[in-house]
Amino acid sequence: MTKYLLLKHYRGAPAPVNDVPMDRWTPEEISAHVQYMRDFADRLEQTGEYVDGQALAPEGTFVRYDGTGRPPVTDGPFAETKDLIAGWMVIDVDSYERAVELAGELSAAPGAGGQPIHEWLELRPFLTEPPTITE
Q1: Which part of the chain is the YCII-related domain (predicted)?
Q2: Structure confidence by residue, pLDDT tens digits, 29-56
C-alpha cells in the first residue's frame, strides 16, 4: 500500500471545467459539494483506503527559524496569494492507477448548478525512502 496526498487547489491549479468560484455558489450547492466529499471519504473509509482529510481556511502565515534565542519570523497572513490550497485528503491504496482513479472521482464533486467541477487535483505520493546521495 502507498499513501498519496490529494491537494484541492482553490487557486493556482489549471482552471476546472465548471469554473465558478465557490463564493458565488448557493448554500445548497455548497452543501451538496461538502456532502459529496463526506460520502467519498466514508466510502473509502469502509474499503480501508481513507487516512485523513481536512478543509483549510484561506488565511495562512509563513514561519521560519531566525536563530538561537530569537523568536520565529512570520510573514502574513496571506489570504490573496496566487496559490490557495482549499483542502487535502490522504489515501492509502494498492497502486498509482487506483490513486488516479480515486482522484478522478473526487474531481467530479458537484459545484455551481449541481454540475461536476472537473477540478484538477494534485496527486503526490508520500516519500517512502530517503533519496540516496552518491558522489
Answers
A1: 15-107
A2: 999 999 999 999 999 999 999 999 998 8
